[in-house]
Amino acid sequence: MPFTNDEIASTLREVSKLMQLAGENRFKVIAFDKAAQTIEGLQEDINEYIQNKNLTDIKGVGKSIAEDIYALEKTGQMPVLEDFKEKVPEGLVEWLNISGLGPKNAYKIHKELGISTIEELKEKIDDGSVASLSGLGQKSAEKIKKSIEWMEKFDERCRLDEAEAIAIPIFESLKNLDGVQQIEIAGSFRRGLETIGDIDILIAAEEDRISELFDVFTSHERVTEILGRGDTKSSVRTKEGRQVDLRIVKPQEFSAALMYFTGSKEHNVVLRQRARDRGMSLNEYGLFKLTDDGDTDFDAPVEFSSENDIYQKLDLHFVPPELREDRGEFEIYEEQEDFELVTDEDIRGVIHAHSTWSDGKYSIREMAEACIERGYEYLGLTDHSKTAAYAGGLSVDEIKQQWEEIDELNKEFKETGKDFVIFKGIESDILADGSLDYEDNVLEGFDFVIASVHQSLNMPREEMMERMRNAIKNPYTRILGHPTGRLLLKRNGSDLDLNELVALAAEYNTAIEINANPHRLDIDWRFGNKALEVGMMTSINPDAHTTEGIDDIPYGVRIARKGKYGKDRVLNTKSAEEVRKFFEAR
Ligand code: DGT
Ligand code: CA
Ligand code: CA
Ligand code: ZN
User: Fold this and answer.
1) pTM of the prediction?
2) Helices (H), 41-190
3) What is the pLDDT of residues 513-546, one digit of tens each?
4) Which of 126, 477, 522, 577 could form a disulfide with 482 if both were Cys (CB 3.0 to 4.6 A apart)?
């Protein structure tokens, strides 16, 4: 069996991870990482290149990596990977997930203290050994310990993108099987929540099919443990440590079960009460009349054939799954049928992206072409500003050069009839006092400024608020970037009164982004009600550091839908001309 593109990419990625842990040269690490990325995004089957012996025609695949791939194809093993597997103990790889512990220090601790598991690491932090290593110290040790605690605390949940990587392949392996009449992923995943506890899959099938469907499910290649198997429900654990529940219900019960297992619990509670108020009882099996004593009369079912039907019976229009959180959706859908939420298709441009000028991995041209390929009409390029030295922030000189490059590219697009434009932006650090990172005469030259905090996120609430208020009020700020700076399941964001900032942003006609990176999804959808009330604009921004990063936009769209944003309040659903007007209206 030949290897797939994805398999080869993930082998290369594994090499790059192990190299980091072995303290290997940084450029080598990046080379493997970049090759992995390119191969993942490759349209053609990589085996064509392997057969033609022209792997090096693929951008980012150099001679030596090509040899590694040929060897993999020939022998089923990649020698460089095997080498590093010998050098790096298995447990160490897990350490990469500890934020605040870089691969270099991981290697040092492992080498000097002779340990390789998280348990051992915790012990050595507690007995002071880690702190006593040169270049580490008490402060670093504390930080690592805290990260481990966070990690363990949050292991019960995972990010939406991680859940997707598990749920979709399992869903795909089931959906075309004989006997599957309907299938959906339900639960928090269907609601588009930013973190997922377990994955809930629901199938409609006749009873005599159930056993064989469970057989397929429990023997899926990702499954490492079968947690339970009953008549209608089976639960497994995948190799990522995630639980997946599969429920198989009778075809006539599917819609009611889907509604029930989509949740949220809070939404369901209100639905059940609405049913009772109308002389009915709603449960996971269906909708039934109530007896005179107020019990469910299972002999008197109320007919329905879809979730939509059930909502109608409860005097509601269909509530999109993202909104089923009991946060005002009932008031809306009692009245409105077409309370329109933004969709993936509405997105016309890419705002907030980095290039090699700062810490992005691709040139401006490559980023622009990736946008064009995906059908977008504009790119709002925003490299880091000068204070973000660690991320290659731009000096004033560099900005001038970058502007020239963008002017050239825009000219070229125009002359070659490409309907595409690059906006000159910057992601300016918000300094401690809330000011932006350049003098006004420089800020003036940009088409737009995204203002973001990257340092001192943990200032006391009132100081942080003053800082953010100043940034929003600054006339050059058009978009506030990832307002809390949170990293989901890893780091809490700044302590802020976001409702106040949402109102202030609306007042100053500044947008607050929904950072679509699945690690962030910041601003949180829970402030959507306030944003709706005051008419705040958002922009669904990928914060892309690679061309692939652009494809994070759909995560942001899901969060925008959860936050009740319609197309009219999402900046990058607008035409380039309208966006320019928004930028100029400062
Ligand atoms: P998660 O897994 O923690 O991310 O969140 P969910 O919402 O997927 O929760 P889960 O997996 O426990 O249950 C899936 C859905 O099933 C949930 O959203 C609503 C429904 N459900 C489960 N248990 C109950 C319950 O005790 N009462 C009600 N009303 N609904 C429940
Ligand atoms: Ca769930
Ligand atoms: Ca569940
Ligand atoms: Zn950024």
Assistant:
1) 0.79
2) 46-52, 63-75, 79-87, 90-95, 103-113, 118-126, 137-154, 160-175, 187-190
3) 999 999 999 999 999 999 999 999 999 999 999 9
4) 522
In angstroms, rounded to a whole number, what is the distance separating the alpha carbons of residues 563 and 80? 47
Question: Among 262, 435, 439, 420, which Cα is nearest to 350's?
Answer: 420
Architecture of domain 260-335: 2-Layer Sandwich (3.30)
Task: Describe the strand order of the beta sheet including 233-238 as a list of residue ranges.
Answer: 182-185, 199-204, 243-249, 233-238, 223-229
Q: Which ligand is nearest to the CA of 187?
A: 1
344-584: CATH homologous superfamily?
Metal-dependent hydrolases (3.20.20.140)
Q: Which atom of ligand 1 is nearest to the CA of 189?
A: 8
CATH architecture of the domain with residue range 90-153:
Orthogonal Bundle (1.10)
Distance 187 CA to ligand 3 centre (A): 7
Q: Of 267, 245, 274, which is closest to residue 193 (Cα–Cα)?
A: 267
Q: Residues 45-70: pLDDT tens digits?
A: 999 999 999 999 998 899 999 999 99
CA distance 361 to 545: 6
448/299 Cα distance (integer angstroms): 64
How far is the CA of 103 from the CAs of 120, 280, 494, in angstroms? 17, 59, 26
State whether residue 380 is helix, strand or coil.
strand
Cβ(275)–Cβ(287) below 8 Å: yes
What pLDDT, on the 0 to 100 scale, is given for residue 24?
87
- In angstroms, what is the C-alpha Rg of the chain? 26
CA 246 to ligand 3 centroid distance, Å: 9
